[in-house]
Request: fold
Amino acid sequence: MNKERIAQLEQFRKESPNDPFLLYALATEYKEEKPEKAKLFFDELLEKYEDYIGSYYHAASLYAEHFDREKADKIYQKGIEMAQQLNEHHALKELKNAYTNFQFEE
Reply:
């Protein structure tokens, strides 16, 4: 977790509050050391910007590791659905692979 980068991202977010990348960047900054805080950013991202496809893989992974596997399952499924709708073939392949691995973990 880089405090300088976080401060910079927070400043950018004040300047561009509707930029989903900034939520994503903040979530990934906090993911390892402060998963609770990362969860808040991912939740906001998934709620407000459901077509920001990059968030599904990381949000589902975070939920699976730290919080709620049932919610992680739903996030993977929603991400797969969105990737199909948006014709995001690379993201779809990654999400399907991650979801398969997730299912085997149970």
